[in-house]
Amino acid sequence: MATQTAQVTFKSKPLTLVGELPEIGRPAPDAELVANDGSVVHLSDFFGKNKKIIISAVPSLDTSVCDIETRRFDKEAARIGPNVQILTVSMDLPFAQSRWCNSVGVSNIRTLSDHREGSFGRAYGVLIKELRLLARSLFLVDAAGVLRYRQIVEEISHEPNYNEVLDAAKSL
């Protein structure tokens, strides 16, 4: 599998990403993930249902920046309307994601776990080899299942550019 070095850092230390970034304008890659109830879901389950999909990949919901980001997207999901689904993907175990969502009152987005195989991380080129976590990144998939936007945050301890992905979703 392909790897990329120094595209992202953690506290200025270069990290290795496993997989290849998907191309904008091409069908979005599928990935097998685990829902909070333990059931297996595929990203393709969300594609082609007349909804745009924002995928927010985060290292761990139990870290401050991931907490801030996921809460922000939960608020945006309530505002953006029913034709956009926001998914947050992390390597956290499903029961940990469920506990976190319940403890902070997040209910407008869907959290999904990539802990089993790293399927999402590899398919989207954001699996951090050294940490077995996902690099902070955003992807936008249109209603036809085509990737329209991607943002890889260079320093994983920083927040993404929220407005950029939200504006891209509104413009589709």
What is the gist of this entry?
The protein has about 170 residues and is an alpha+beta fold. It has one domain (about 25-115, about 135-170): Glutaredoxin (3-Layer(aba) Sandwich), CATH 3.40.30. The chain has 4 helices and 11 strands; from the N terminus they run βββββαβαβαββββα.
Present the secondary structure layout:
Layout: E1 3-10, E2 13-18, E3 32-35, E4 40-42, E5 52-57, H1 64-80, E6 84-90, H2 94-104, E7 110-113, H3 119-123, E8 127-128, E9 133-134, E10 137-141, E11 147-152, H4 162-171
Parallel strand pairs: 5-6, 6-7
Antiparallel strand pairs: 1-2, 2-8, 3-4, 3-7, 5-10, 8-9, 10-11
What can you see in these coordinates?
It is a single chain. The chain has one domain (27-117, 137-171): 3-Layer(aba) Sandwich (Glutaredoxin). It has four helices and eleven strands, in the order βββββαβαβαββββα. The protein has helices spanning 64-80, 94-104, 119-123, 162-171, and strands at residues 3-10, 13-18, 32-35, 40-42, 52-57, 84-90, 110-113, 127-128, 133-134, 137-141, 147-152. It is globular, with a radius of gyration of 15 Å. The model has no long low-confidence stretch (mean pLDDT 95).
Rg from Cα:
15 Å
What is the CATH architecture annotation? 3-Layer(aba) Sandwich
| Adjacency order of strands in the biggest sheet | 4-3-7-6-5-10-11
CATH homologous superfamily classification = Glutaredoxin
Summing up helix and strand content along with how strands pair, one would put the structural category as alpha+beta
Top CATH class: Alpha Beta
Which series of helices and strands comes N to C?
A: EEEEEHEHEHEEEEH
Average pLDDT level: 95
Number of strands: 11
- Reported by name, the CATH topology is Glutaredoxin
**Helix proportion of residues, in percent?**
25-40%
> Proportion of β residues?
25-35%
* Number of helices, counting only DSSP H or I runs of 4 residues or more: 4
When the domains are counted, the total is 1
Tell me the span between the first and last alpha carbons.
32 Å
Give a quick account of the main beta sheet: strands, pairing sense, barrel closure: 7 strands, mixed
